[in-house]
Amino acid sequence: MSEPLGLLLVDKPGGVTSHGVVARARRALGTRKVGHAGTLDPMATGLLVLGVGRATRLLTYLVGADKEYLATIRLGQSTITDDAEGEVTQAVGARVVGTEELDAALGELTGDIRQVPSAVSAIKVDGKRSYARVRAGESVELPARPVTVHSLQRGEPRPATAPGGTAVTDVEVVVECSSGTYIRAIARDLGAALGVGGHLTSLRRTRVGAFRVDDSVPLDSLTTAAPGSAGEFLLPLGPACRAIFPGIDLDGALARELRYGRPIPPVPDEGIWAAFDEEGGVIGLVQNREGRARPVLVLDPA
C-alpha cells in the first residue's frame, strides 16, 4: 500500500489547535509525515492547509502566500489578548459609530503599513514566546513590522450589548492581506483610532493563496472516515502544483533530464515554475539561473 501523498485542505473548527488538527490527520491517514502551512489560533476557524508525505516540501511556498479572512470586530471594549478570549482591560462603550469616521480609520489600516503584532502572538522575545511572557505577567512591547493589507471591506455596523451591559458596536470585515498580518492587531488598532478600543470576537480564514475554504473538508469528516479511506480527501501533487505555481510541460527528453536533476531550457518568466511530464504528472520545481531553468525541488526523481 502506497504512502498517502498530497495536500489536505481542512476546515478547522473553533476550540482546536492547529497542532491538534495535524495530529488527527496523522491518525486518519496512518502517517507521521504531515505538516501545516501556517497556524490558526484555537478560537479561529477556517482553512488550514496540510502537506502529506513528500507534499510537505511544498509548504514552504505556501507559508508566505496571501490570506483572506472574515472577521468580526467589537468596538467599545479592549482586551489583553486583542480577542474575545482575553480579559477586558477597557470598556469605554461604543453604541454609535459614524460610518465616515469608521471608513477613514479602516482606510488608514489599508495598504502597506507598519503593524505592531499582538503581545500574545507566538513571536519569540529573547528565546521565549511573547504570549508566554504576557501570561506570566510581563509587559511586552513588540516592534512594528511591515505588512500589506490589500483590501479591508466592512459590513454594516451593528449595535450590541456585551456581557456586563456595555453598549458596543460589532463590525464584520473581509480582510485580504499578506502573510504575517495579525487580524487581532487590526481590531485593536481600529478601536484605538476611533478612541473606543476594539477586539476580535470571531475569525475565519477563507483563503490561503489559490486555495479556498469552500474546497476544504470538515475535520469531523476526516476523522470519522472509514479506515483507509481518508486518503480520498487529498489533493494530488499535480493539481496542487498547478494551483500554486505557473506551469511548463516538458517532452520526454527534457522530463528525463529534470528527473536526473539537470538544468533545462529557461522558463518564460522569473520565479518558481512547476514542470510537468507528458502525462501531466509533476516532476519538480525550477527557476531560471545563469540562462537555464535549474531544479529547485525534484518531486519525481529518476
End-to-end gap: 21 Å
* Assembly state (oligomeric): single chain
| Share of helical residues | 10-25%
Radius of gyration: 22 Å
Structural class: alpha+beta
pLDDT < 50 runs, ≥5 residues:
none
Beta-strand share of residues: 25-35%
Q: Helical stretch count?
A: 7
What's the β-strand tally? 19
Residue-averaged pLDDT, rounded? Answer: 92
Biggest sheet layout: 11 strands, mixed
Shape: elongated
Notes on the structure:
By secondary structure, the chain is α+β, with helices and mostly antiparallel strands. Helices cover 20% and strands 34% of the residues. It contains seven helices and 19 strands. Strands 1, 2, 3, 4, 7, 10, 11, 12, 13, 14 and 15 form an eleven-stranded mixed β-sheet that branches. A four-stranded mixed β-sheet has the order 16-17-18-19. A hairpin with a 2-residue loop joins strand 13 and strand 14. The model has no long low-confidence stretch (mean pLDDT 92).
Question: What's the arrangement of secondary structure elements?
Answer:
Layout: E1 6-12, H1 18-29, E2 34-36, E3 45-52, E4 67-75, E5 78-79, E6 88-90, H2 99-108, E7 111-115, E8 124-125, E9 128-129, H3 130-135, E10 145-154, E11 158-161, E12 167-177, H4 183-194, E13 198-208, E14 211-212, E15 217-218, H5 219-223, H6 237-244, E16 247-249, H7 252-259, E17 273-276, E18 282-289, E19 292-298
